[in-house]
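Subject: Protein entry, chain in single-letter code together with its fold tokens

Area: Proteins and the way their chains fold up in space.

Attached in line: The record itself begins immediately under this heading.
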Amino acid sequence: MTSDPPARRRQRGPRPIPVPSAAGDDAEYGDILAVLGQQLGEKVAHATDPSGRRRLKGVHFEYAADPKAVHDMAGGAGYSLASNWFTQLLAQLAVANSITKSQLCVFLFVAGGQVPGTGITQYTQQEITDGLNKVAAQKGGKMITRSTVNRAVQALCGYNWVEKAGNGRIQINVRLWFHGNSTAQHEVLAEIADKHEHDPSVFPYAVGPEGAHQEELDLDFGAEDSFRGRKRTG
């Protein structure tokens, strides 16, 4: 009988660095550490130190900003995106007394109450009225009436800022104000375009820096006589 072959001698050298088992973002860090460990091992193997060992003094990592960070906004309703051009136009209209207080308040209230990703507000006119009167009722101040809200909605439809969507719903012009990401906005725009047979002269594209209303920067959108006739002191 022949004897068993002698065991092979283990060659000296750096031990392979195991790759950490991780999931998600941790897996990426595991891969980086594995590569770094292998590189460090190769440097140790080729070092001139007769002991074959060198002490690692430290490794410096720099982390980029977390792309998942979210905005910190007041209240629990989230936030919407608004056209800067339109935001400035609202201010211009208010200073010029060319939009009524009720129209401005109704638009801001419904724009801030959009169902995310739809551009739709599901308030009835009575709910808009009650919502606008919330603080006034607490303070015992003058409150807006439902008939005034109805006239304001009609005027806003004439400006192409909103559009009635049936069943008591109101469609916001999502080129002016939108609660949602760009993908959702383009989907809503496509639906609106289909509804209006892709006519660029109607809602929502009739409003904008090159739109019809830009020519009306004398800003006469039909302000109420009582509001326009008030003597300005400032």
About this structure: The chain has a mean pLDDT of 80. The first helix runs from residue 25 to 45.
